[in-house]
Amino acid sequence: MPASRNEQSRRAILDAAISMIGELGYDHISIEAIARQAGVGKQTIYRWWPSKGAVILEAATESLSAVVALPDTGDFVADIRTQLAAILELITTTGFGPAYRCLIAAGQSDPDLLRALFDRIIAPNIEDFRARTARAQQRGEMRADADWQTMRDLLYGVVEYRLIHAMPLEPEYLDGVLEIVFQGVR
Amino acid sequence: MPASRNEQSRRAILDAAISMIGELGYDHISIEAIARQAGVGKQTIYRWWPSKGAVILEAATESLSAVVALPDTGDFVADIRTQLAAILELITTTGFGPAYRCLIAAGQSDPDLLRALFDRIIAPNIEDFRARTARAQQRGEMRADADWQTMRDLLYGVVEYRLIHAMPLEPEYLDGVLEIVFQGVR
């Protein structure tokens, strides 16, 4: 665990990584450039992270975890909408969207990075969603036999799908998604 | 439109591209290697396609269009399941899955390729789905006011999401997806 001064450097490095990736793209940033922007030596970065992918993943994870908590107001649909709207906002207004797209791209030829992305970003979301779904089912907000894992894939998968294909991600889009997932099209 | 001998070369090139990408990955194949495997000169490939990405995209598009027709038996759920099961089979047993993952990856830093992928693969799927949905709505298989565009994003997006994250894609998975999209979880 880094001490306070280290924590400042760590924060500066992650902030530099996420803002530079939004401007320059994955291929055009280097550990050296991140270090320069963060005002640290590049050995500082290499001491904490083994690769550029690892820095970007940590920056994306932190930036997501700052907004991503699934609230529990007692209204499951509204809570999911609140969370997804915060994710859309993060995607469309910060370096998180470009960073995530770069990680997905790099992960297609780097299985370790893809697995780390799953472990750091998707697995916590699955656990969070599982816990919240159990309460929603107890309260009758969704059927007890409804398949929460597939439901989660659909909700977060469709956001990623539209991000990856550079399709619009307006908050209103979420209304149609939630309507189908909760009510069905039949 | 290539004549018959050209068509043979074209076929050999696309077959070589899709099989090599499954074995070697996008970064490790070259136009030269595809030409060698297809038994053509590399100028033949450059005459028809401007880049490696363009060859792979055409190979993926042809391989998908051979299986992807959305049937119309009068049972909309069964027809979607038939089509999605064929796509899963293609993804898991041929070079199409690796090729598609490579195109997604390359497309994140190549907007022209990403747009071409949309135009060649996603736009035809949207049009096909729109036409089939209109008939399903006329027959009462789905509500007239149900949002077919978001429904399509959910169905095909979740398959892509699981492919991109190297998550299992078993045909049984489709049952849960169709259950939620048609019935909802409420």
UniProtKB/TrEMBL annotation, chains A, B:
Pfam families: TetR_C_11, TetR_N
Signal peptide: none
Domain of life: Bacteria
Domain HTH tetR-type: 7-67
Matching InterPro entries: Homeodomain-like_sf, HTH-type_TetR-like_transc_reg, HTH_TetR, Tet_transcr_reg_TetR-rel_C_sf, TetR_C
Transmembrane annotation, as ranges: none
Annotated region of DNA binding: 30-49
Record's keyword terms, sorted: DNA-binding, Transcription, Transcription regulation
Protein name: TetR/AcrR family transcriptional regulator
